[in-house]
Amino acid sequence: MKIGITCYPTYGGSGVVATELGLELAQRGHEIHFISYAQPIRLRGPEPNIHYHEVEVSRYPLFDYPPYDLALATRMAEVSQLYDLDLLHVHYAIPHSVSALLARQMLADGPRGRRLPFVTTLHGTDITLVGLDRSYLPITRYSIDQSDGVTAISNYLRDRTMRVFDVKNPIEVIYNSVNCDVYRRNPEAAAELRAEYAPNHERLLVHLSNFRPVKRVTDVIEIFDRVRKQVPSRLLLIGDGPDRSVAEWLAVQKGIHEDVLFLGKQDEVQEKLAAADIMLMPSELESFGLAALEAMACEVVPIATRVGGVPEVIEHGKGGYLADVGDVDTMARYAIELLNDEPRLREMGREARVMAKSRFCASKIVPQYEEFYRRVLERSS
Ligand code: GMT
Fold first, then answer.
1. To which H or E segment does residue 233 belong?
2. What residue ranges line ligand 1, CB within 6 angstroms?
3. In terms of domains, do 161 and 211 share one?
4. 172 and 209 share a domain?
5. pLDDT in tens, 61-106
6. Can you give the pTM of this predicted structure?
7. Atom number in ligand 1 closest to CA 12
8. I need a labelling partner for 236 at 20 to 30 A (CA). Which of 81, 117, 202, 361 fits?
9. Which among 287, 293, 313, 369 is the best mutation to test ligand 1's pocket, defined by most ligand atoms within 8 Å of the CB?
10. Angstrom distance (rounded) from CA 123 to CA 133
11. Looking at the structure, do residues 172 and 230 belong to the same domain, yes or no?
12. 182 lies in a domain?
């Protein structure tokens, strides 16, 4: 198949999922065309069967708000025509599904009357935050209903979208995936990184996010502060975003900043993740929690909040722990108990990988997308 993929290319779970899916599909022989305003962050150099088409947005002085969605729709239609794409797959409803809808309409009404179906994958914040803004809700609902196929990355997100948006289109759940060959523990590489980050054989905790308020990064610092009082340990923070400075400030106030390492945005996150013992994900809401899944594949035990789709990914007590939002004491207790019990820590790490491999491995999930595309194409022909 020839598939156009659009996503937010910068830091963020939906862009990561879209890029990894495109790479996997390309390896399976499909021709993949990424259409976006920047090269997706995890697209490493030229790859067979992968093409990238940049969307140029003109900065005419009249445009206080450059119309990216229109430029994207135009590029989608152009690329689909030029490369004879079979379908578009857009990740994140706003504005991508609206642009895809316009592109489909432009081609249908064009000289060749060409049909270009599009699939929308809902990721979470497009529904739970952005879509609930009154100014976006009607158009989000409309573009979901107009999609030729809709998927959501968890049952939680599907149910919430159906309930809150009252969409008529059926929504199929296809879970996020992880490449279990790339995300895995490599003892030699881990030992090298630990020598750098934990030179005195401290325990290593990790957090990975875009540091938005929904991630509750200050809770990460609070949990680590409690853990560090009981177990010599250090904290790796991967990513960047609006709440970074408040987290830095809290670490300084608590006098623990020398043990809190802000690494910023990183390309090869799997290496850093795989060097850690425990991953902290105390979010206010996650419709899936891709960072926790990536950690699990690396045998790193996640301690997370029981919110949204997270219980579909982490089974409490088996390969990970769940607690209530804001309950930093309980999350710290789980971490301390585990870090003091090496055999249990390793056993739970292994359980985490088994869970990631058996349910979310890309080799299981990608064929579900292929099958979904086939059904959409059949219906649209
Ligand atoms: O979490 C974010 O702020 C980024 C956001 C995104 O759209 O990139 O993540 C959402 O999609 C991820 C990939 O499907 C999920 O793993 C995250 O749980 C989800 N975030 C939220 O629901 C807050």
1. strand 233-238
2. 12-14, 17, 92, 123-125, 128, 153, 176, 210, 212, 214, 285-290, 308
3. no
4. no
5. 787 788 899 999 999 999 999 999 999 999 999 899 999 999 999 9
6. 0.94
7. 8
8. 361
9. 287
10. 16
11. no
12. no
